[in-house]
Amino acid sequence: MIYDITQPLFECNVFPGDPLPEKKVMLRIENGDICNLTGFSMCAHNGTHVDAPYHFLNEGKGIDKVPLEKFIGPAYVESHDGDVTAEDAKAILERAKKCGNGSDKRILIKGKATVTLEAAKVFAEEKIFLVGNESQTVGPENAPKEVHLVLLGAEVVLLEGIRLEKVPDGSYFLNCAPLNLTDTDGSPCRAVLLTGDI
Q1: pLDDT tens digits along 83-100
Q2: Which residues pair with 75 in a beta bridge?
Q3: From CA 6, how far away is CA 174, in angstroms rounded?
Q4: What DSSP state is assigned to residue 189?
Q5: What is the pTM of this model?
Q6: Is the dihedral of CA 159, 120, 171, 155 positive or negative?
Q7: How many CA atoms lie within 13 A of 163 on its CB side?
Q8: Which residues 6+ apart lie within 8 Å of 64 measured at CB?
Q9: CA-to-CA distance for 155 and 150, rounded, in angstroms?
């Protein structure tokens, strides 16, 4: 089975203050044009997207320099509402490790969860590849910087704005590869989770 955990781009949520994506109809067959053609403009962090270290670290890697293995591979989904504490983070990682397939390298948190600075330090120390959540930012919305610095500083990439309401907790295969945008701080992605019986 394939779970699409991506927001529709033109109806997506955006971080407060970021521009909304805009769709522009350029050509339409019904208007006598040779084909249908659409243009659009957007922020790299609209909707479902990934953050590169360069987002908060001026010397950090751009999205095109981050190895694709960070975005593609086994992942673990767990429900959590409220603050994710250091103890929560350790418990999530322990349950993910029990899957025995590398799911503990990519952690997706389902629900209205906020990754605390202490949890970020746990994930960073474990050298995981990716943390994902349903909010438009990992960490507190009113003060996301410190959490981003810890995670991105450890080259833990962030998958933000995913939709997991239809996904049961457990282990999956994740693909959230970004667009190959040169020297960019992030990228939209089409994030999907696959079960073993597709």
Answers
A1: 999 999 999 999 999 998
A2: 172
A3: 12
A4: B
A5: 0.95
A6: positive
A7: 14
A8: 180, 181, 182, 183, 184
A9: 9
